[in-house]
Design brief:
57% of the residues lie in helices and 18% in strands. By secondary structure, the chain is an alpha+beta fold. The termini are far apart.
């Protein structure tokens, strides 16, 4: 039977391992970041501990299955993962983050049941997969490029710009919007994007300038 200090250590360890993976997602501005991964890992760990303690309290009196309660985490985490998946045109984003949440729940369950080696190895493999393979996937892209533009303050502009960038296979990493001090009816937008090597900046600039209301476009590598 688990003692209180051992439960505390398992909960702490699960938060550290979950946070390790969540930090990588947070650094890439994903929908589910540091806090979400930590909470999933701690919650999964707690449910696993509860399963073990409940089974210990009724062992010998009934044919209880200690894995039944913990098994619901595996299916239940799918609802949370689905919230991080977004569809933009023909592109689906967030699958990797959803998968990392699912794996983190498994890490929490492993720590909660006392399988520390499996939890550590899984965390290491997941972190390497998210960092190293991401670089391989992005090998055909340039370094981060700043795209700044000036546009009229009217609804739908960001969506139109995103559609143009999507046509050229340009990935948006971050976007900032602010009003111009001189003209209140105009906005300044700054996009941080990954541009494929075969794409010409002039072609993208002309395509964006065709959007009504946009007056100035600049690429800064």
């Amino acid at each position: 039977m688990l003692v209180e200090w051992e439960m505390a250590i398992r909960l702490l360890l699960s938060s550290i391992l979950g946070g390790f993976i969540g930090y990588e997602r947070e650094a890439h501005h994903k929908a589910a970041g540091l806090r979400t991964h930590i909470l999933v890992s701690i919650g999964s760990c707690l449910i696993m501990i509860l399963s073990i303690k409940i089974y210990s309290s009724v062992q010998g009196f009934t044919n209880a299955d200690p894995a039944r309660l913990a098994a619901q985490v595996v299916s239940g985490i799918g609802f949370l993962g689905a919230g991080s998946i977004m569809k933009e045109g023909s592109t689906v984003k967030g699958l990797t983050t959803a998968a990392s949440l699912w794996v983190v729940s498994g890490v929490g369950l492993a720590v909660g049941s006392g399988y520390y080696m499996g939890a550590f190895m899984t965390t290491g493999f997941v972190f390497l997969t998210l960092t190293i393979l991401a670089r391989i996937e992005n090998k055909d892209h340039k370094c981060l490029v700043e795209l700044s533009l000036t546009t009229a303050d009217k609804p739908g502009q960001v969506g139109k710009i995103g559609s143009i960038l999507g046509l050229y296979g340009i990935q948006i990493r971050d976007v900032k919007i602010k009003e111009q001090e001189q003209e209140q009816d105009r906005l300044e937008m700054v996009f941080m994007v990954y541009v494929p090597r075969q794409v010409q900046g002039n072609d993208v600039t002309l395509a964006i300038l065709d959007i009504p209301g946009i007056t100035c476009v600049n690429f800064n590598s």
